[in-house]
Amino acid sequence: MTDSSTSTTPGRPRTVLLRRGEVHSPADPFATAMAVEGDRIAWVGSEGAADSLAATADEVIDLDGALVTPAFTDAHVHATATGLALTGLDLTGSATPGEVLTRIREYVAGRPAGAALLGHGWDASGWPGGRPPTRAELDEAAGHRPLYLTRVDAHSALATTALLDLVPGVTALPGYRADGALTGDAHHAVRHAADAALTDAQRADAQRATLRRAAALGIGTLHECAGPDISSEDDLRGLLALAAAEPGPRVVGYWGELVTGAKDAARVRDLGAIGAGGDFFADGSLGSHTAHLHAPYHDADHTGTAHLDADTIAAHVAACTEAGLQAGFHAIGDAAIGSVTQGVRAAAEQVGLTRVRAMRHRVEHAMLLTAGHIDAFAELALTASVQPAFDAAWGGESGMYAQRLGADRARTLNPYAALLRAGVPLALGSDAPVTPLDPWGTLRAAAFHRTPEHRISVRAAFTAHTRGGWRAIGRDDAGALVPGAPADYALWSTGELIVQTPDDRIARWSTDPRAATPGLPDLTPGGPTPDCLRTVVAGRTVHDRLNE
Hints:
The protein is 35% helix and 19% strand.
């Protein structure tokens, strides 16, 4: 694969011509070439027309058959926590409490004395007895230093005595356990203490690690879902400033806190956020038994935790809509989702359905949905910001979701096909570090959902992971390789391109050349995923392995 460059005429946007590849574009399903001027796509078409553009291009890239796609958008991330998992104590995949303790000891041995330590990713649901290490075991392994360890879903955590001692009154807070995972207010308080222990340099290094990893995976935009119970104002401001100052993916910020009027909305905007949503918690998570359900858990005698009621949700949505600010909620359980839809509908009655629909308010995760919920999402134009890798990790007949809900109820989780049939917009993401940044893996998880009736085509999932993320922030002019769109794209080394759907009748029709359906890589489980050669954001290369 080669590229050639010439000097740019002063005052003229730099032009790049990519040719002899496969360009995934709705403008021309058979395109092999694309021209970019500055930060916009200028043209998409065939080799014959590319010949006439080559002489005036500042750079000509011979793709040698590589695939060109729009860059992915990950619609739900936590950049600092993801970076800390990438560079620090990652407990993902630990098979026993003993393995967790071993990893802690190894990590502590290489860290300077006195610094607080953070880790992520433990999951006791498959461990013998289903129990995490005791606090005494953690104290010993950490050398009696402050240590904060989030469960894989980030809705509960373990902490050492030294960290708990930094939180006055923690033992009286809801969710405190003398020897076990912290949830609720106790968890939030300990999280704040752990967050405050990070230095500015540690935070920036973690954020850079996330942005570098995203760029290397062909991700051009990240939606940071921040909030007072998940991160901090300084963390969000720092991330947005870093992303604006250094080459890398775009970062769009959300701040999950209650808005009751124009003053609150202005404060959200002052933070640099485009919406009061993301992780504005209506409930918790299934793994931590804190998602709010209508019926009790299969493996616990309660229905989880409700953080917001329908009246509060209605007030938030109405105030955001009046201020022209997007609202959103974290809602996983059917009771929490019911509260959200009830509240949004009440807000629509107050300020007008058309105004509410125009704001494209969001629901993050939206997992345990009923048919009525899906109808309400369509009626209210709610965007479902979902994470297919959750099903890949914890779905199935014997997975963690089946343990929590029973197999029958677990089969109703994440009904992507039903959402699309109803016309509900989907935006795909990872919730990193809960699951890794992995866009092609996300598409695979959606197309090969563990419950077959919830599967969607790779093409539909691809649209939801590219254009869907842009539409979720109110932009309909981006996320596809068409003239005039932002020049956010990625180059991929991959195998044969196919049309992959849950129904082979659709596949047979779509692969007929007369259907003019552009192909995508084969994502059959077990096979390789495409290798990212270059990522470009607004015409600027942010990751490059093109000529290695």
